[in-house]
Amino acid sequence: MHQSTATQNEVDAAKKALPPVDLRSDTVTKPTPAMRRAMAEAEVGDDVYGEDPAVNRLQARAAEIFGREAALFVPTGTMGNLVAIKTWTQPGHEVICETGAHINQYEFSSMSFVAGCMPRAIPAADGILTWDLIEPMLQIKHPHKADTGLVELENTHNVAGGSVYPTEVLEAICDHAHDHGLRVHLDGARIFNAATYLKKSVADITRKVDSIMFCLSKGLGAPVGSMLVGSQEFIQKAHRYRKTFGGGMRQVGVLAAAGLIALEESPKGLAGDHQNARHLAEALGRMPGISLDAAKVVTNIVRFDVSGTGHTAAEICGELKKRGILAGPFAKHAIRMVTHYDVNRAGIERALEAMREVTRK
Ligand SMILES: *Cc1c(COP(=O)(O)O)cnc(C)c1O
Q: Range of 350's domain?
């Protein structure tokens, strides 16, 4: 593309000298030295018998942090969401969600394939649903239509660029849903990012939802694992479905030990990730051909449009890769960059320098 400022040899040399800056996702974070030590030293048992002390500690601590009765360790966020959907619904139900929701776009139709439910997807600005958008889509005891079985919300919203629910909007949805006898499940894969932005506790911003899934394996940096949080009754049922779906694990305390450190230590680093994302967004926004609204970058996800550069997202990501910068093409002309603790400010500057180079006309 634009080889005038750096010869291929120079590019190759730079690539060798420095490790890549990986902005594809916050899932790429590697366990910290403290996590690795905790994993090596974890006290373990058979978790299918409920005898793994590290798992039990992690579950108790997650429940406590969210101010709930119980929690359950699950291998992935995808399984956590599926278990929650299965627990709250019956086959033939519809699940209300936002069109860009992870459960609608990135979970291989599992709610239909496995739980027998159909998504009733509603598009919303910045991925943020309101009760006014949801209400007309409700179907309860309709003579010709499937019953709504669950409302699902995503906070932060991944596809919308890490947008955050105003707590009063989320709570109003819960209040109205409950008035209709409906449950609300929260895909809180990045709920700690939302709480960091809102400067509130995760318990405060999730008070009214009926169940929460959050990921230990994203910005919190654990190698594997997500949690479901809710009432004792919900978690008891969820526990049975986790086993049904093949998610009963044995000496999984080696993972839970890392998860516990992620839960205790990592949230305090998220504000720095958000500052890096904002810095990245503001500088990208000033580059010709790139369009994004930096003011909307409030957590760790930066999504931008590259149509004006005359190149596709895949072309730009390909050129960035040659310069040691990894980013994800999200659509034909959209790129996503996600900040996390394995990328510092110097890494952000490298990414910006590479972007200037590959988008220069
Ligand atoms: C990553 C993610 C999940 C699923 O997590 P996995 O552990 O990758 O299965 C669910 N919801 C959202 C919003 C996510 O970003």
A: 9-27+269-360
Ligand 1 centre to CA of 152 (Å) is 14
- pLDDT, residue 116, reads 98
Q: Are residue 150 and residue 196 in the same domain, yes or no?
A: yes
Residue 218 Cα: closest atom of ligand 1: 1
Question: Do 313 and 244 fall into the same domain?
Answer: no
User: How far, in Å, CA of 29 to CA of 259, rounded?
Assistant: 13
More confident residue, 313 or 11: 313
The rounded Å distance from CA 215 to ligand 1 centre is: 7
Greatest alpha-carbon span in the chain: 69
Is residue 185 within 6 Å of ligand 1 at its C-beta?
A: no
pLDDT at 18: 87
Q: Is the CB of 32 under 6 A from ligand 1?
A: no
pLDDT of residue 11: 63
How many Å is the Cα radius of gyration of the chain?
A: 21
Q: Atom 8 of ligand 1 has which residue's CA nearest to it?
A: 77
- Between CA 214 and CA 108 the distance in angstroms is 19
Measure 78 CA to ligand 1 centroid, in angstroms: 6
Ligand 1 neighbour 309 (Cβ under 6 A): no
First-to-last alpha carbon distance for the chain, in angstroms, is 9
Residue 1 has pLDDT above 90, yes or no: no
